[in-house]
Design goal:
4-stranded mixed beta sheet; globular; alpha+beta
Length: 202
């Protein structure tokens, strides 16, 4: 089983994250931010990655530290569970419709963290969550997971639909990328023979 646990405690957040890449999409999420809970639950359900995410953060200050550290911890857990990445699909791309909104999410588990973000919102909050923090969550996740991540929203009017489509798109692309391909015979999917060794090669 490809599993990992990340426990992080700072003056800003106290986090416990468990993931199972070979799960069925079971989740137990409590971040202190209801809308973020909803999005992480979507990520788990549609990626089929079991996730436990428990965060106590300094929300009396603002949401920034909780959102940032949530993305970091989940990314670290996914990276740790992948190990040497032998036999994985590595790449994933999904067109993700959500009613009137359409997003595209493409990723490469490359060991070269990068985020291209082409999405915008017309409101400052969804529920109690600041919409400006969504890009930061994806940046933190991509950096910690070592993933090249491209996100583009083609169109959409409802801000909830836009961001939910993005999270579901990430989930489906991640599901494809982390799944084991029996044709690869356990080989690392890189001509270099390794991924994510810290040299940003792959």
């Amino acid at each position: 089983m490809r599993t990992a646990r990340i426990a992080r405690k700072t003056h800003e957040t106290d986090i416990l994250v468990d993931v199972n890449l070979d799960g069925s999409g079971k989740y137990d999420v409590s971040t202190g931010i209801g809308f973020l809970d909803h999005m992480v639950e979507q990520l788990s359900r549609h990626s089929l990655i079991d996730m436990t995410v428990r965060i106590k953060g300094d929300l009396h200050v603002d949401q920034h530290h909780t959102v940032e550290d949530c993305g970091i911890a989940i990314g670290q857990a996914v990276s740790a569970a992948l190990g040497d990445k032998a036999g994985i699909g590595r790449y994933g791309q999904v067109y993700s419709p959500m009613d009137e909104a359409l997003a595209r999410v493409a990723l490469d588990i490359s060991g070269r963290p990068w985020l291209v973000w082409k999405a915008a919102f017309t409101v400052h909050k969804l529920g109690e969550m600041d919409t400006e923090l969504f890009e930061h969550w994806f940046h933190s996740f991509a950096q910690a997971a070592g993933i090249t991540l491209h996100i583009e929203v083609f169109y959409g009017q409802n801000n909830h639909h836009i961001i939910e489509g993005i999270y579901k798109g990430l989930a489906r692309a991640l599901r494809t990328a982390v799944e084991l391909d029996p044709r690869k015979g356990g080989a690392v999917p890189s001509t270099k023979g390794l991924l994510g060794d810290g040299t940003l090669n792959g």
